[in-house]
Amino acid sequence: MLSVFVSLLFAQLLLALSMARHAPLTQRLVQPAAPYERLKRGTRLSGFGLLLLSLVVAVLDSGPGLGITWWLGLFPLSGMIVVILLEHGQPRSRVVVPGRDSEPVSGRLVEDCE
Amino acid sequence: MKTRFRAAMAQLHRWAGILFSAMMFFIFLTGTVGYFHYEIDRWMEPERPLAMDRQASASDPTQTIFSAPSAGGRITVTQAELVELGFRRLHALAIQDAIWWGVILPTGRNGNTWIEWQPPRRPDGHRPERRAEYLSFADGEPQWIRPRHTGGGEALYRLHWKLHYLPETAAYWIVGLCTLLMLVGLVSGVIIHRKIFRDFFTLRLFRSSRSWLDLHNITSVMSLPFQLMIVYSGLIFFAVTFMTPIVTAQYGEDGARTFYREAFPEAEAEPKTGTPAHMVPVVPLLHAAQAETKTSIGQLYLLYPGDKNARLSFYLPETTPGHYRGKPHKILYRASTGERLEGGNQLYGGAASVEKTLIALHEGLFADWRLRWLYIFSGLLGVGMIGTGAIYWLRKRQARDRQSFAAVERFYAAVLVGLPIGIAAYFCANRLIPAHWSERADWEMHCLFLAWMLTFAYTWLRPLERIWRGLLLLAATAWSLVPLVNAVTSNRHLGISLANGDRVLAGFDLSAIAVAIAFGLLAIYGYRRAYRSNGIGSRAVAAEG
Amino acid sequence: MPARLPHTPLPLDIISRCLAALAGGYALSIALPLLLALLLAVDRAQTTLVALLFSFTVYTAAFLWTFCARTHWRAWIGLLLPALGCGAIDALILSLRAGGQV
What we know:
Chain B is α+β, with helices and mostly antiparallel strands. Chain B has helices spanning 2-34, 37-44, 79-93, 152-162, 168-192, 211-222, 224-237, 239-242, 244-251, 256-263, 282-293, 350-363, 369-397, 406-432, 440-461, 467-489, 494-499, 503-532, 538-544, and strands at residues 53-56, 65-70, 73-78, 100-104, 114-118, 131-136, 143-145, 299-303, 311-315, 330-334, 340-341. Chain B has 2 domains: 2-42 and 157-164 and 368-544, no CATH class; 49-146 and 266-347, no CATH class.
C-alpha cells in the first residue's frame, strides 16, 4: 500500500500545482519555462491519471473491498499533507486573487463560493 | 439559470444543515468512535486479562504458540490447548440449553481468549445478552474471569444508529432521514462549490474572515470520496426497511425473508432435534479446516450444543481478501460425527456482492489497525466538516451583530464540544461506578447524557464570549481525567499496559491523552485570542473565541 | 432563489417543497427503480437489490429537484407525474406476470 500512498501524494501534488493559485511555484519548478496553459493541462492530466492509477493498483493488490477501503482512507491523508506543504511551506509571495483573498465575507453563500 | 440553480442548491444545503447538523454530528462522531468498539470493549472491562501475543507460528496452526502474561513471567500455550481449555470450560459450565457456544482465540484487536454463549430466549420472549468468560493465566494456572457488566464500546457504537431513549423504529426513521439529507447536503455542496477544484488545496488559516469556510471546504472536499461512500453505504442499511414496496412488489407482503434467502443464499442450519449426542474432539477438525484453508482460524462456534444436529462453524478471519469472491468464510462440521458439511461459501450474485461490499466498506470490516486509523481520520474530517459548516453559517449570520443568534451559538457550542465531554464522562463512569452494580451498564450511558446536558446548562449560565474556551478547557480536563481515573481505580493503567506490551489498552489511554492535548491546544488558542488585545475592541476579538 | 408564486408566503413555499421532496420523492424512488427491476429480465433477487441500491440516488435527485423547480407546484408535479406513470406501468407488468402464472 505504500506505493498507493506515494502515488496518491504525487497525484494530488500535481493537481495542486496545476491550480492558478500555485502558478508561481509551478513555473519556478519547471525549467525551461513553458507557457502556463500547457503546463496547467499537463500537470492536471498527469495528476488525474496518477490518481486513477493509484486506485487501480490498490484494487489489483487487495481486491475491490480492501483496495477501495485503503484508497479511500489514504486519499484525505495525502491530501492534507499536500495542503500543509503548499500552504505553509512556501514563502508568502503568492498570487493574491483579487476579490477572493481580501474581500470580507459578503453574507451570501453562493458568492462566497465563487 | 445556472446561478439560480446554484442559489437553490445553496438554500437546500443551508436548510438541511440548519435543521439537522446537530443530529448528523452525533451520528458521525459515534460512528467514528465505533470503529474501535472492540478495543473500547477491552478497556471498559478491566478485569479482562492482559493481552496474549502470538509468539511463534508453526506449519501446523494448531501448534501456534501464544504467550500469556502471568505472575511468574510469560506462559506459553498452543492454539490446540486454548481450544481444549475453552470447550472443557463450556462443558463444565453445563449450559446445555444455550443456543450457541463460542470459543474465540486471541487476535490483534482483542488479545484475549474467551468463551461465550447465548442463553435461550426466556418464556416472556425476552432475549438475554450473550455471556462471556475470559481465560487468564495471571496466577500461573488457567482461570476463567467474568468481567463487570458494561455496555462497552458496543453501546457507544450502537448510539450511531439506534440513538438512545427512543423506540427503535423512531430512531431508525430519524437516522435514516438524516442520512438521506446528509447525502443531499454532500451533493448540493459539490454543486454550489463551482470552483471546487480551485479550492481543493486551499486553506487560509488565521488570515482572513474566510477561515471557517476554508476549513469547511477542506474537510469536506479532502474526504469527499470517503464521505460519499460512507453516506451512501449507510443508506443501504435502511434499504429494505424504507423501500419495502420495492421488495413486496415482487415477493408479496411477507416476502422479505424469502428475498434475503434468495439474494444471500447461505446453507441453512439443520434444526435442533432434541436428541442429545456427544461432541467429537474439536482439535482434529480444527487442524483439518486450517489445513484446507491455509489460514489460521480465530473463532469457533457450536450451534445447538449437545444436540444430534449440533453444527461446528470455524470462521476465517475477516481481513482475508476474497471474502466475497466465493472463497469460504466459514467451515462447517456436524459436531456429533465430525462430518464436513456443505455451505459457508458466500457465492453472491453481482448486485448482492456489491451490496455486501458496500456494507463492508461502511463498517470497515476488512480493516487492520492501520486502515482503521485511516477510517478514524476520515471520520474526524467528516465530523469537522459538519462542525465547521455550522460555525461558518453562524458567524456569517453574526457578521453584523455579534450578539445575535446567541441561543443558536450556545446550542452549537454545547452540541459540538459537549458530546466529546459526554463520551469522556462515559469512560470515567465505567471506572467509577462499582463493578458489582447490576444496573451499571445503563448508568454509564446515563452519565454520558447527563454530562452532555450539563454542558448545555453551562452554555446558558456563562456569558456568550466565554463559552467556547470554557467548554474546550472542560473537554481537555475531562479527557485527561480518563487515563488518571483508570490509574487510580484499576490495574490496567498505562504503566502496566506499556510494561506488558498490551497495545490496545495502552493505545486507548494514549489516545485519550492525545484528545486531551488537542482540546487543550484549542482552549489555549481561544484564551490567547481573548487576552491578546486587551485594549480597544478586545470584546469584539474575544468574542471570536 | 427560484421564483415563487406571488401569493405564496416563503415559509409555505419551503414547507411545500420539503413535503414534495419527502412524499413525492419517496413515491418516485419506489416507482422508478421498481420499473427498472421489472424490465430487467434477470432473477428477481438481483433486480430487487439493484432497485434498492438505485432508489436512494433517485431520492437524492428528487430532493435536489424540488428545490430548483421554478415554483413549488412544479416541484410536486415533477415528482408525482413520473411516479404515477412508472407506478402504473409497474402495476401493469406485475398483473401481467401474475396473470401469466395462473
